[in-house]
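Summary for the steering committee. One of the milestones for this cycle was to obtain a three-dimensional model of the protein with fe (ii) ion bound, which we needed before selecting residues for the alanine scan. The sequence and ligand used are listed below.
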Amino acid sequence: MIAGLQQGANVSSLPPFPEGWFFIATRAAVQKAGLIQRTWMGDEIVIWADPVGQICIARSVCPHLGSDLGPEAGAKVVGGRLVCPFHGFEFETSGQCVATPSGAPARSANLDILEVREIEGLIFGWRGLGGRPSQWQLPDVPGAGDDWTDLQIRTIRFAGHPQETSENSVDIAHLSYIHGYHNVTSDAPVLIDGPRLESRFGFSTTRRIAKLSRLTLHVSAVAHVVGLGYSFVEFQEHSIGIDAQLWVLATPVDGTLIDMSIVSRMRTLREPKRFIAGLNFLPQRMRAPIINKFIADFQIRDVQQDEVIWSRKHYVPRPRLVHTDGEIMKYRAYCAQFYADGPRCDSSRP
Ligand code: FES
Ligand SMILES: [Fe+2]
């Protein structure tokens, strides 16, 4: 073994926790569990909601004498307040201590809370360089009417870095080589506006759907990358008329692992131009959930194919590129804004 050479993501020279908004949990999961604890961006955090729906994300350390505030330590949410398991201080979702067992609130005892952003029931926390407040917001997404499915969400954990996973948005070449897409096209130059990056591309892919039929899908996609934890992709499929939305949310856990959540939903098929064997007997409203599951399945399959590479790869600051690679270095120059000193990359090279 070459001296100093270690396995993949462990030798990444990228700082592990870039600035930005990073996914934590869905509102539905928070409300179902009552209190959730996560290792998130190298910190232990807790998240809960009060009866009017206000969400609080806080570091999992009590300001009184330092108890952990997770459910395993015995913390509970009672009447919308987080109750510390050590001496019973009670905290509102503002982070303020509003009651103690002796009756007097400890006014100076505040939880260390994070800024919260919610999009379509997905809860994000802000992680600022040096603890600074949010410098930008995640944009709203086009609303979904009654003809859209509910969100499907799945999360997988592996060794990786969100800059490396988001790089796939501009790495057009890998779409055909790993994922087997054909007719892959870059449909416009990559656009960058502050923390936002937009990549437009197209591809065709042939898939077996619900073990019933083989379909060739012709897809136009617009990926909106907003920081390194958030990618929102709009798909339009032109053969049978699928409109789908996909979120790819990469959240660093502890400096080595990331949680990648794949969230999808789709609109009920527009006028199908083609017969879909096996699905034609289903009522229209049932086709969308089946195809949404199909889309989620094939996105997970894609991520699993990528994960084999991501979890073993090295960050190469000066990649030796070819002309079919897409705008990798433009993407990396964009990424530099999310680090205190910038990642070690050389955007001056072709
Ligand atoms: S450590 Fe939390 S109430 Fe004392
Ligand atoms: Fe990929």
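Key point for the committee: The two ends are 31 Å apart (CA to CA).
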